[in-house]
Amino acid sequence: MFKYYLPFAVYTATVLAAGQNGTLKVPPCPDTASISFTTAVPNGDPCPKTQVNICYTDKSLELAFTAFNEINFYYNPSHQTNSNIWAYEAMEAFISKGSDDPQTYFEYEASPNNQTFNAFIYNPSREALPGQPMDHAFISSPFSDGFKVNTQLDKPNNIWRTKSTIPLALFNGGPEGSVWRMNFFRTVTGPDTFPKQQLCAWRNPGKANFHITPVFGVLSFE
Fold first, then answer.
1. What is the tens place of the pLDDT at every residue in 24-65?
2. Radius of gyration of the chain (CA)
3. DSSP letters along 60-127, please?
4. Do residues 36 and 30 touch, judged by C-beta distance below 8 A?
5. Residue 169 DSSP one-character state
6. pLDDT at position 38, please?
7. Contact at 8 Å (CB) between 65 and 52?
8. What is the reported pTM?
9. pLDDT confidence bin for 173, thresholds 50/70/90
């Protein structure tokens, strides 16, 4: 088991979930902004609750994911950094600095066994359309680059949590006063349903496809 700490006071943020008006005001740490989601992609069926807390320092983005109502804690024990953890259970953040619908963005994922997926995504169609370019560039040594991840499985209470540090140098500098685009996701599966997954999202893309960037939420860093 991995120890997990969240030394943050909870910051009350405004979340508008309608249309493309999903917005979040993000404070500097130790306060955090918090969002949660309980709907599946694309049909809006009920999904296990997922919570994301986010704040920033002068050097990093700090993300804390909490997966509630977890049943299987399902992962591949052979997975390592940048394995296909998204095919099992994972919590995910798609991150882009700037206010435009992104064509390039950072995909970060963490799994119940404390493995991560770290890659810049090239998606010029903004929807990962068939026949259109789609590529990725891995961050191959994330922990040498300043990334951190710490995951805890709380099986008696059907919860798993992961706290991550993502260096701001990845995005050419700090966020204070800037606007970013992000979306947050969770994949749910188990031994009886794999490889079929339930896909859960903060901002529903309307398709079983997380790579639809116009629906990304708007985060303002204070």
1. 999 999 999 999 999 999 999 999 999 999 999 999 999 999
2. 16
3. EEEEEEEE-S-S-----TT--TTS-GGGSSEEEEEEEESSS--SEEEEEEE-TTS-EEEEEEE-TTSS
4. no
5. G
6. 97
7. yes
8. 0.90
9. confident
> For residues 26 and 59, what is the distance between their CA atoms, to the nearest angstrom?
15
| Residue found under tokens 């903060």 | 202
Contact (CB, 8 A) for 32 and 51: no
Q: Which residue(s) pair with 105 in the sheet?
A: 121
What distance in Å separates the CA atoms of residue 108 and residue 92, rounded to the nearest whole number? Answer: 6
Residues in contact with 25: Cβ distance below 8 Å, sequence separation at least 6, in sequence order: 13, 14, 33, 219, 220, 222
Residue 216 CA: distances (Å) to CA of 35, 66, 78, 153, 200: 14, 20, 32, 29, 14
Q: Is 31 exposed, middle or buried (0-12, 13-18, 19+ CB in 10 A)?
A: middle
